Amino acid sequence: MAKINKPRIVKDYDKLPLDVQGQIKLTYPHGFSGSLITYINAKGKVVSALPYETDEFYYLVRMTLEEANNIVENDDDFNDDGILRDDFALQEFEGHDDVDEDVNDIPDDMPEEDDDSDDDI
Q: In the chain, which ranges are continuous DSSP H helix?
């Protein structure tokens, strides 16, 4: 079976479109901290991120363990135990499917990562 190459995007969680944030919550209803991975970027720096894949893109959502816990703790969509509320409705995110205009220009190889860049894979 041939592997299909998808554009890869590295972004901070708060810079993702709201609909993508909502889909991530549904994918990780028990929070993000247990699903973080680490990798070494082009500058040799260890980075932690949450992997998330859609039909069109492969995301690495940059976040530390502390950030992952803070996002869930401060998000009203998660209950006090860090679990996505049963009444979470993705419908409130619909219509916000704004994808970065330059997303198709993202190469499939791994260029150097800039700390200030949103899309750096």
A: 18-27, 65-73
Return the DSSP state at 103: G
* Among candidate residues 17, 35, 12, the one with its CA nearest the CA of residue 94: 17
- Count CB neighbours of 86 within 10 A: 7
Rounded to a whole number, what is the distance in angstroms from the first to the last CA of the chain?
Answer: 24
Q: What's the rounded Cα separation, in Å, for the pair 91 and 111?
A: 36
Question: Which residues contact residue 105 at a Cβ distance below 8 angstroms, ignoring those fewer than 6 apart?
Answer: none
What are φ and ψ of residue 96, in 5° steps?
A: -115, 45
Question: What are the pLDDT digits (tens) for 27-82?
Answer: 999 999 999 999 998 899 999 999 999 999 999 999 999 999 999 999 999 999 99
Whole-angstrom Cα distance, residue 22 to residue 16?
10
Find the range with the poorest average confidence among 20-24, 36-40, 60-64, 114-118: 114-118
